[in-house]
């Protein structure tokens, strides 16, 4: 009985951990001031008929705080990478050169910073919803255990709630840090 309860609790912890990691990945895609290579994680390039992540067809470097240089491993991919970045709605205007793509990253305006904060808050809320769904599913599984002593089930449910509170707090802390990162000029 206790083993089954512990199994559900371990599974809940693992699922909540995944929700936090997903939120961190989504936060990394949101630009805050200076550019990073992870901003391009969601960009998919048509590589000979197959959609491929940009990082798998090119090297992304940040030579200074206002420039991103993308050097494809095949020169023929410059036009395709330029198109993929333009179509990705990242807000950049890539310039294809002979053997690389150069992106001048403009400074963020106050209005754009507020939009990014709003987007980060949406991602944080999505993470919290994921955690609450794990809590609901785990509690339902705990209640479905046949012949389980009620006090054991109630204790397990309170541990699930403690996990939920801890992971929700982690997301709140990540959100605070991201908001500070975005709004700092």
UniProtKB/TrEMBL annotation:
<dbReference type="InterPro" id="IPR023584">
    <property type="entry name" value="Ribosome_recyc_fac_dom"/>
</dbReference>
<dbReference type="InterPro" id="IPR036191">
    <property type="entry name" value="RRF_sf"/>
</dbReference>
<dbReference type="InterPro" id="IPR002661">
    <property type="entry name" value="Ribosome_recyc_fac"/>
</dbReference>
<comment type="function">
    <text>Responsible for the release of ribosomes from messenger RNA at the termination of protein biosynthesis. May increase the efficiency of translation by recycling ribosomes from one round of translation to another.</text>
</comment>
<keyword id="KW-0648">Protein biosynthesis</keyword>
<feature type="domain" description="Ribosome recycling factor">
    <location>
        <begin position="26"/>
        <end position="182"/>
    </location>
</feature>
<dbReference type="GO" id="GO:0006415">
    <property type="term" value="P:translational termination"/>
</dbReference>
<dbReference type="GO" id="GO:0043023">
    <property type="term" value="F:ribosomal large subunit binding"/>
</dbReference>
<comment type="similarity">
    <text>Belongs to the RRF family.</text>
</comment>
<keyword id="KW-0963">Cytoplasm</keyword>
<dbReference type="GO" id="GO:0005737">
    <property type="term" value="C:cytoplasm"/>
</dbReference>
<dbReference type="Pfam" id="PF01765">
    <property type="entry name" value="RRF"/>
</dbReference>
<protein>
    <recommendedName>
        <fullName>Ribosome-recycling factor</fullName>
    </recommendedName>
</protein>
């Amino acid at each position: 009985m206790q083993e089954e309860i512990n199994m559900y609790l371990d599974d809940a912890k693992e699922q909540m951990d995944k929700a936090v990691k997903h939120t961190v990945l989504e936060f990394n895609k949101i630009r805050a001031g200076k550019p990073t290579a992870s901003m391009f994680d969601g960009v998919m390039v048509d590589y000979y008929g197959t959609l491929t992540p940009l990082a798998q067809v090119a090297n992304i470097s940040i030579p200074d705080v206002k420039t991103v240089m993308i050097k494809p491993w095949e020169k023929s991919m410059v036009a395709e990478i330029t198109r993929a970045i333009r179509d990705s709605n990242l807000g950049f205007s890539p310039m294809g050169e002979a053997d690389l793509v150069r992106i001048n990253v403009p400074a963020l305006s106050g209005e754009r910073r507020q939009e990014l904060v709003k987007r980060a808050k949406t991602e944080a809320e999505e993470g919290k919803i994921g955690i609450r769904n794990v809590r609901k599913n785990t509690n339902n599984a705990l209640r479905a255990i046949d012949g389980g002593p009620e006090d054991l089930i109630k204790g397990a449910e309170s541990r699930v709630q403690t996990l939920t509170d801890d992971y929700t707090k982690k997301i709140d802390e990540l959100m605070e840090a991201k908001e500070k990162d975005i709004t700092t000029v």
